[in-house]
Amino acid sequence: MPLFRNIVLSSVLLRVALILYSEWHDARSLVKYTDVDYRVFSDAAAFLLRSGPGATNQARGDPYTRETFRYTPLLALLLTPNVWLHPSFGKYLFAACDIINGLLIYQLLVKEKLAAIYAASYLLNPLVFSISTRGSSESILSLFILLTLYAALNSRWDVAAIMLGISTHWKIYPIIYGIGNLGVIGAAERDKGYFRTIVNWRTTRFTLISAGTFLILGAGCYAIWGYPFLHESYLYHVHRLDHRHNFSPYFYLTYLTYPSHGASNARAPELWSRILRSPLTSFVPQMILTLGSGLLFGRSEKDLVFTWFVQTTAFVIFNKVCTSQYFLWYLLLVPLLAPQLLLSRWKVVACVGVWVGTQALWLAEAYKLEMLGDNVFFTLWVRGLFYVVGNCWVLIQVINGYDR
């Protein structure tokens, strides 16, 4: 406990120092420490407060007046103190969620000898604390997911269903965990066959509560903010075409067939172009892997963390857009999974080396594109394929090293 208290205290001081530094740095430098998304959040919160009873089209405030705000309006509502209290309120909130996440990880591992070390691997992870102090809201979603997992591992499935509904409202991807839970919830029916394990009263109850929570939150937001909420929070992400460079294996193909690239688009066959730009091109293989792994591995509470990790990692690797921020989705589960892995020291070193090395390989080429303006789209995509292969190899090592 003394060790963990020191880890928590160090984590708090580190985040406070970085937030204070971000204010000093941003006031003096053209290259900002603060993520551009944080300004989007703050502007959306301001729009939410700005419109009063006398406004014609925004009588209740409309965060979607801010272009590129493509999140639940509850995030803008949560960050309204950015406007009337302090501009960095949201950063402190995100950092606080980081700390709570670390406490939950420790609580879930409290019986493990190295619980404090595992929790520290999250709390003191540079990717984790830099993203939250720069103003990304991922730590809030991570908190909802950990609360869902905490409830599930304690067999409080109604609470887990509610938290999963909230998580899915916040960002749609946690819906995949619902599939991973079914085999665990219905384990008592396993002797009646696999179908009865997945489809029974307990799994139906879980699904109805989770879906009901999601629909109630969505209906409430739709009643207030209408179609803009529906489009920006959900529909936009289904039809999104992002030709900007990212780790995804689909980015270069999207770039070549993007509507604004007239010359490239003219050379591409119309049918081929349509296939590449279709959401199904990335969505189908991604869902087969994530949902299939959930059904395959989700058999008992002991396997729940492992199942979620495999689902999340596959989802991120094969998502049509993939940035470093998305890595937090599965890194959140690594401290909880680590005690269940039987990997040699050299295998761990190899996995970490491949994971970091493939990113470094990609980032070196991305620097030429982003900072130097070199036309390296193709070679950057090739390096992205190395990233995909390398991360798949790491995932396979984790699956093979899992202590069943």
Total DSSP helices: 22
Q: What class, by secondary structure content?
A: mainly alpha
Strand percentage, roughly?
under 5%
Distance between the termini: 30 Å
Largest sheet geometry: none
Mean pLDDT: 90
Percentage of residues assigned to helices: over 70%
Contiguous low-pLDDT stretches (5 residues minimum) are 52-59, 261-266
Order of helices and strands: HHHHHHHHHHHHHHHHHHHHHH
Rg over C-alpha atoms, rounded to the nearest angstrom: 22 Å
* Morphology call: globular
Got a strand count?
0
Architecture overview:
This protein is mostly helical and 404 residues long. The chain has a domain at 245-259 and 272-403. It has 22 helices and no strands. Helix 9 (157-170) packs parallel to helix 12. It is globular, with a radius of gyration of 22 Å. The two termini are 30 Å apart. It is a multi-pass membrane protein. It is found in: Endoplasmic reticulum membrane. The chain crosses the membrane at residues 115-133, 140-166, 172-188, 208-227, 348-364, 376-396. This is GPI mannosyltransferase 1. It comes from Laccaria bicolor (strain S238N-H82 / ATCC MYA-4686) (Bicoloured deceiver).
Q: What does the secondary structure layout of this molecule look like, with pairings?
A:
Elements: H1 2-26, H2 36-50, H3 73-78, H4 81-84, H5 89-108, H6 115-123, H7 126-133, H8 138-153, H9 157-170, H10 175-185, H11 194-198, H12 201-225, H13 227-239, H14 251-257, H15 262-267, H16 270-277, H17 279-297, H18 304-317, H19 328-331, H20 334-337, H21 345-370, H22 377-401
